[in-house]
Amino acid sequence: MAEEPSKGGRHLERKLTLSFAALGYITDTAQKLGLLPPPPLPLSSDEWERVKQRSLLQGDSMQPCPICKEEFELHPQACLQAFEKFTNKKTCPLCRKNQYQTRVIHDGARLFRVKCATRVQAYWRGYIVRKWYRNLRKIVPPTDAKLRRKFFEEKFTEISHRLLCSYNTNIDELFSEIDLCLAVNRSILQQLDERCGHEITEEDWEKIQVQAAHREIYECSICLTPLSFHGDCRQAAVGTSGQWPRETVLLSCAHLFHHACLLALEEFSLGDNAPFHACPLCRSCYQKKILKC
């Protein structure tokens, strides 16, 4: 923030203003009395035209303003008025001539328009040439080996990127589908575990055995040979020189098979990737119990 002038400074400024005013009054009075030469007459149109032609030959309008060192733009210049107000006299800041005359010309504004148009055209032409050169570099490979290799690497990268963008890679949808499949698999495994995972008690096995007896199953459905029960074991052993018959196994679905046949079937079906073995008759998961002779 600018400091306010002191009382002494204001008094000195007032004295200087009064002195310049008195000097101007004395000069006007001396000129009227013929003691000093009168001020020059206003220039005619021809004289102004000669002055303008000399200014054009010197290129004054193309140079910046001698006071502010800026270009003569389109808006009116107020530097000369500010200089006259600051010096409190009419003296040229270059040649120090007193009592000069002024006239507004528009050569500087015209030259400034031409310069701006030239600058805009230069920027636009530069943009067009740079764009054309970038497209040319994308089409024509360079001759240098390293640059040529880099050129084709960028080409292959661009082609691969376009191919990847052409495919619909919705990662969120893929993850949602995976989660749904996992939930369905867990539900199926849970249902199988509820059906086949719990242990069957002895009372339940007795009920299943009674149910199997009501079905009157007398042969193995795998090998199609007769099954051996409690009463048949000893008779078969006596009749075959002490060779015991094959063991019979009871499934939780109330079906009967030879134990060896069922084991062979289970080993044969290991490649099915099933979490549980299925009964060869009803296709349900089962638990088994070997019937003792």
Automatic annotation (TrEMBL):
Residues 220-283 form the RING-type domain. SMART domains: RING. The keyword Signal does not apply. Keywords: Metal-binding, Zinc, Zinc-finger. It comes from the Eukaryota. InterPro entries: IQ_motif_EF-hand-BS (IPR000048), RNF32 (IPR042862), Znf_RING (IPR001841), Znf_RING/FYVE/PHD (IPR013083). This is RING finger protein 32.
